[in-house]
Amino acid sequence: MSTNIQEMSGSRDRVIVCTSLIGIGANLALAGGKAVAGLLAHSIAVVLDAVNNLSDAMSSLITIIATKLAGRAPDKKHPLGYGRIEYLSTMIIAAIVLYAGVTALIESVKKIINPETPDYSALTLVIIAVAVAAKVLLGVYFRKVGKQVNSGSLQASGSDALSDAILSASVLLSAIVYLTTGLSLEAWVGVLIAIFIIRAGYEMMTEAVDDLLGKRLDRETAAAIKKTICDEPEVEGAYDLFLNNYGPERVIGSVHVEVPDTMTAGEIDSLERRIAHKVFEEHGIVMTAIGIYAVNTTDDRIAEMRTRLTRMIMSHDGILQVHGFTVNDETKVIQFDVIVDYARTDRKEIFDHIAQEAAEMYPDYTLRLVMDIDI
User: Fold this and answer.
1) Tell me, what CATH number does 207's domain have?
2) Helix (H, G, I), strand (E, B), or coil: what is residue 317?
3) Which of 213, 247, 280 is the last residue of a domain?
4) Closest of 196, 177, 181 to residue 52, by C-alpha
5) 189 in the Ramachandran plot: left (φ > 0), alpha (ψ -120 to 50) or beta?
6) Are 253 and 287 in contact (CB under 8 A)?
7) What is the Cα–Cα distance from 355 to 359, expressed in whole angstroms?
8) What is the enclosing helix (H) or strand (E) of 253?
9) CA-to-CA distance for 192 and 290, rounded, in angstroms?
10) Is beta strand 366-372 parallel, antiparallel or unpaired with respect to 286-295?
11) Which of 264, 300, 317, 330 could serve as a FRET partner for 283 with CA atoms 20 to 30 Å apart?
């Protein structure tokens, strides 16, 4: 498994670096052309569009540096590698974009207060039109490659490039309006550009922060992983799926599975290894821990206890799931986990009420209930 991860990581890093180099070259060329055209035409909108392209080139450079750092081999200090550096790089890119947006907004407002008459030429229009086409192609390419290699930085750069294409098109439109009607809209277009840039930076920042803090696994992915696990004939249910993200290609997980209590330690060991292999092959996730819930299959009385308690618990509004049910007749202990919907503001009250009802149903037993996490 470790060899496969290293091979996948190395190939991914090469793709990201090559794509980012293309982005740097394209954005530097566009920034230079727009800067010359904007200065010649005395157009704040075109100059700001050039600055925006320059910030995109810087973003691609940061992506390359971060990819190289994130690709460093795990060591004693960081045994799970440096993959999360990519999230930090996305935050840095977002900060640059936000700075560019705020600066653009300030300069555009100044031009609204003290306007200058633009002087658009045919060359200026051609440069802007070429920039629009180039940004569309670059944006589509970045997003496609970003999705293929699961790179948040590349996808963010792709979305930013497509937004830039729209903004450059608005600059071109304002130039055409000025040439045909004499109405100068370029300072207002500059404000529009600034707002788009600030919005893009904010969205990039919040996405990176979410990745660092940890966010809920989308239900489709969780369901797919659990289906892979439950496809094993011995598995009667999969619960408590936790995934820890140490970078886009370094996801480590754990899960609890329900299996018959008649399985031997050797059979369980074989099952856990099959599950770990299948989850990695199908989802690229390394399962480092697979816990066991033993389902009683030999005592009808305990099976009836489980049915009665489950029916009672699920009759309450806001209960999403009951799992991990076990009874120890020697110690007179009943244990199970209950998931209460986060949408309920009275989660603890519901849980306490369930615990009381369960204790009244089986007063001779000690109940150990856990209000589990809905993930």
Assistant:
1) 1.20.1510.10
2) coil
3) 213
4) 196
5) alpha
6) yes
7) 6
8) strand 251-260
9) 52
10) unpaired
11) 264
Give the single-character DSSP code of 365. Answer: S
Three-state SS for 182?
coil
Token digits of residue 343: 């949408």
Q: Which residues of 79-89 are buried (b: 16+ CB within 10 A; e: fewer)?
A: eebbbbbbbbb
CATH of the domain at 276: 3.30.70.1350
Centre a 10 Å sphere on the Cβ of residue 146 and count the other Cβ atoms it contains: 22
CA distance linking residue 181 with residue 175, whole number of Å = 10
Residue 139 pLDDT exceeds 70: yes
* Residue in the block written with tokens 């904007």: 38
Residue-level pLDDT at 15: 84
Helices 152-181 and 122-149, axial angle in degrees (round to 10): 160
- Per the structure block, which two tokens stand in for 272? 């856990």
Res 1: pLDDT: 47
What per-residue confidence (pLDDT) applies to 5? 45
Q: Which of 33-42, 160-169, 196-205 shows the lowest mean pLDDT across its residues?
A: 160-169
Domain that holds residue 127: 2-213
Domain identity same for 192 and 245: no
Percent of the chain residues topping a pLDDT of 70: 92
pTM of the model: 0.56
Distance CA(236)–CA(265), nearest Å, equals: 17
Same domain for 252 and 272? yes
- DSSP β-bridge partners for residue 289: 254
Q: Residue 252's CB: how many other CB atoms inside 10 A?
A: 15
Q: What is the mean pLDDT of the chain?
A: 82
**Which DSSP helix (H) or strand (E) runs through 337?**
strand 333-340
